[in-house]
Amino acid sequence: MPLSLPKIEAFPEPQWERHFHRQAGWIGSDCAYSVPLDAERTLWLFGDTYFGEVRDGRRVNATLVMGNSIAIQQGTDARTARLQFFFGDRAGDKPTAFIRPRTSRGWF
Predict the structure, then answer these.
(1) Alpha carbons 108 and 34: distance in angstroms, whole number
(2) Could you tell me if residue 100 is inside a domain?
(3) What is the pLDDT of residue 47?
(4) Does a structural domain hold residue 58?
(5) In a domain? residue 52
(6) Alpha-carbon distance 44 to 22, whole Å?
(7) Which of 2, 27, 41, 97 is 20 to 30 A distant from 90 in Cα terms?
(8) What is the model's pLDDT at position 97?
(9) Does 29 map to a domain?
């Protein structure tokens, strides 16, 4: 019996782009998932993340954080919403993944 999969569509949301086109700190990730926490807050879960600076459209002084980072979005209107990004503890001058395995084996 063939497997029937639901049709899923995704559309760009240009009004939200300014929150993710950043010049310093969190500057990108290879995946993102959003989870509503309540009527005004959303948890963002990111995969491997770049932390650093962007100059002239290029990453400079950037560190790839293997693992993950998160953000909390406050508000639902793209014009007024705020996002605060979080990493784990710093290892020297480099941020670490927000969620880490208890041992050095494995990834989250």
Answers:
(1) 16
(2) no
(3) 93
(4) yes
(5) yes
(6) 16
(7) 41
(8) 85
(9) yes
